[in-house]
Design a protein that fits this description.
Elements: H1 5-13, H2 21-31, H3 34-56, H4 60-76, H5 86-112, H6 128-138, H7 141-152, H8 157-164, H9 168-188, H10 193-198, H11 207-215, H12 225-261, H13 286-300, H14 312-323, H15 329-338, H16 342-355, H17 361-367, E1 379-381, H18 386-395, E2 405-407, H19 410-422, H20 440-447
Antiparallel strand pairs: 1-2
Helix pairs in contact: 2-3, 3-4, 3-5, 4-5, 4-11, 4-12, 5-7, 7-9, 8-9, 12-17, 13-14, 13-15, 14-16, 15-16, 15-17, 16-19
Length: about 450
């Protein structure tokens, strides 16, 4: 029966045979399997704790980084790209978490000392083990995973193959290539490879610390405030890095399309006189000017008193902006870059999604951090104008609303706009619970 003390003792004395990492990750992501999460903590905890201690030195900070790493896993298990290489993924997260906390500590010490430049880093920070951690964190998962399993955790190739769920030959090949790649990078940094690798052993975490990390995987588990704050910061940073990568891909694709579509016709008439040289930037189109005026109008009609609901006059301006189509995109992009107003950010996210022009994606990503600022709630709106209501309901992010149309918080509108324009999600749903506000309900959602 659940909670049976005897069953718990027997489980610990006679653990189930090792399941591949991929099975454990999928089991936890699909059904919040607490036993699967515990197995991941116990299997990879020593390696995670080792990198936290090397970056932060033994102490409470290393313990916070250790717990935060597994809280990130609890939140993002479904987003792990290669569940078989979750050990490598956890190593990368732990390294990122620890370095972020170390940088925050350095800024705090500098502020406390009223010194503009930060204090010099301890010499130990630049020892061989720290260099190896840096270079390991930069390796692709397919090479880092076998290096950690065999070179750091001390597994044989056959044991690593069982945990990773890869054929033994694949593990051996990737291990050899990973070692060669890591050795070349370390030699360039003046590190003696065998001695440096020997300093990377796992660190034994106390039973109490392991239990605390296991509890973060339980929906109702208590999470220390310091760990929760660190996790939220890291989650935001991971999301923004991913969104920047997506933006770079889309920009590259857009530039390629532009290069093709702007080529002159192959059979242009030779007798046509050359066009006169243009001085300065081209004049804005009529639609762009109209879009700018409508955006200004939205801000003028912003509800007073702290609410951010959409009234009919504001909804009509938003509808007219959307009806301009892609011609309004330059005005939307300019406003996304300029404004910090939560109400206008809602409207711009709504408009970008409804217009459907992918040119707005980089601006949405640049403006995404502003959506984490505190704002009013999501709204379900009604309208006295049936035609306006039908239009806004058809373009709202939630099509399930029958008697109202949805007008979400900035982060809600941006999430749905990015999904509509890129065809995928990037883990940004988690930012619903990582806002900069700190109400009791917000903290409860963050724990969940």
């Amino acid at each position: 029966m659940p909670g049976d003390p005897l069953a718990e003792v027997l489980r610990r004395l006679h653990p189930a045979p090792d399941r591949p990492d991929a099975d454990l990750v999928r089991g936890y992501a699909a059904g919040r399997d607490a036993a699967a999460f515990e197995a991941l903590v116990r299997r990879h905890g020593p390696t995670v704790f080792g990198v936290c201690r090397r970056v932060l030195r033994p102490g409470p900070d290393a313990e916070d980084a250790f717990q935060a790493t597994f809280l990130v896993l609890a939140r993002k298990a479904a987003a792990v790209r290669d569940p078989a290489a979750v050990g490598s993924w956890l190593y990368g997260v732990a390294h990122h978490v620890a370095r972020r906390l170390r940088a925050a500590n350095a800024r705090r010490r500098a502020a406390e000392a009223a010194v503009v430049p930060p204090a010099p880093a301890p010499a130990a920070e630049w020892d061989d083990a720290a260099v190896v951690d840096d270079e390991l964190a930069r390796l692709p998962d397919r090479y880092r995973a076998p290096l950690l399993a065999c070179g750091v955790e001390g597994r044989t190739i056959r044991e690593a193959a069982a945990v990773l769920g890869w054929p033994a030959g694949t593990v051996a090949t990737r291990l050899a290539r990973g070692r060669a790649l890591l050795a070349r990078r370390l030699v360039r940094r003046g590190v003696v490879v065998p001695a440096a690798l020997a300093a990377l052993g796992p660190a034994a975490a106390s039973a109490e610390l392991i239990e605390r990390a296991v509890r973060v995987g339980v929906p109702a588990g208590a999470v220390p405030a310091s760990v929760l704050t660190l996790t939220n910061e890291v989650t935001r940073a991971m999301l923004l890095n991913k969104l920047k990568a997506v933006a770079a891909v889309l920009l590259a694709a857009g530039l390629g399309v532009a290069a093709v579509t702007t080529q002159p016709p192959a059979a242009a008439p030779a007798v046509q006189p050359p066009a006169p040289a243009k001085a300065g930037a081209p004049a804005p189109t009529r639609e762009t000017v109209a879009g700018k005026k409508l955006i200004d109008r939205l801000l003028e009609l912003k509800p007073q008193g702290g609410g951010q609901s959409l009234e009919d006059d504001t909804g009509a301006a938003l509808r007219d902006l959307i009806k301009l189509g892609p011609a309004a995109t330059p005005a939307v992009i300019a406003a996304l870059d300029e404004t910090t107003d939560p109400f206008l950010l809602r409207c711009l996210g709504y408009a970008a999604r409804a217009i459907g022009d992918k040119r707005a994606v980089p601006a949405l990503i640049r403006a995404f951090p502003k959506t984490c600022l505190p704002s009013a709630s999501d709204y379900g709106n009604v309208s006295a104008d049936p035609e306006l209501f039908a239009f806004l309901q058809a373009h709202s992010h939630d099509k399930r609303c029958g008697t109202y149309y949805s007008f979400g918080r900035p982060i809600t509108e941006f999430r749905s706009a990015l999904k509509a324009l890129t065809g995928t999600t990037h883990g940004e749903l988690e930012l619903n619970y990582a806002s900069l506000s700190g109400s009791p309900r917000q903290r409860e959602l963050q724990r969940e």
